[in-house]
Amino acid sequence: MSEQEQKQILEDWLQQHRGLLFKVVRAYAHSHDDRDDLFQDIVLQVWRSIPNFRGDSAVTTWLYRIALNVAMKWNGRQRRHEDAHTSIQGMEGILKATQDPPDERLLWLYREISKLNEVDRSLCLLFLDGFSYKEMSGIVGISESNVGVRINRIKQKLIKRSEKHDFHGI
Predict the structure, then answer these.
(1) For position 105, what pLDDT does the model report?
(2) 8 Å CB contact between 71 and 51
(3) Which secondary-structure segment (H or E) carries 81?
(4) What is the mean pLDDT of the chain?
(5) Average pLDDT for residues 68-91, to the nearest whole number?
(6) What is the per-residue DSSP string for 98-158?
(7) Is the predicted pLDDT of residue 87 greater than 80, yes or no?
(8) What does the pLDDT read at residue 120?
């Protein structure tokens, strides 16, 4: 594969699937600078991995796998270098990133998703994007039955947490 072909594939994929990558970035990085850094890391890894794509899975499945793996590694590095309060302070950047009035329910959901452990966070994002349990199993590397159990527990956890807010029953 020539570098020009690789570049064209990357541009096409970014144009078609940018939203998918932003969802992963938003779930793992809280400040504007962190989101930029993580997005760049993911795009760099996608660039490096394009020659290895064999088409055995859908492009979205493959991109999710790359984005989640990069985000989990990035998150681990961030945790080692920051204390817990830094990421909370960075949440203000989410509100500044958009010019539209923020949807409080969406902000709440992303905050709650960011509190989940890495596997559950990944499953939650994949579930919200409509991936099947089988596809989620392949991306995250756990059994389909374990995916089902975890999804049900995540739903129950989020429902219980939402009871404290006016928008209960999202």
Answers:
(1) 82
(2) no
(3) helix 59-81
(4) 84
(5) 70
(6) -SSPP-HHHHHHHHHHHHS-HHHHHHHHHHHTT--HHHHHHHHTS-HHHHHHHHHHHHHHH
(7) no
(8) 92
pLDDT tens readout for residues 12-35: 999 999 988 998 998 888 888 889
DSSP 91: T
The span from the first CA to the last CA of the chain, in angstroms, equals 46
The rounded percent of the chain whose pLDDT value lies above 70 is 85
CA atoms within 13 A on the CB side of 35: 17
Stretch (H or E) spanning 78: helix 59-81
Separation between Cα atoms, residue 68 and residue 131, nearest integer Å: 14
Q: What is the pLDDT of residue 81?
A: 67
Q: Look up residue 134 and give its two tokens.
A: 């089988």
Q: Taking each helix axis as running N to C, give the angle between helix 3-28 and helix 118-128, from 0 to 180 degrees, rounded to the nearest 10.
A: 110
The set of residues, in sequence order, having a beta carbon less than 8 Å from that of 62 and lying 6+ positions away, is 53
CB 24 within 8 A of CB 125: yes
Contacts of 142 (CB under 8 A, 6+ apart): 119, 150
pLDDT in tens, 103-121: 788 888 888 888 899 889 9
Residues with Cβ within 8 Å of residue 100, at least 6 apart in sequence = none
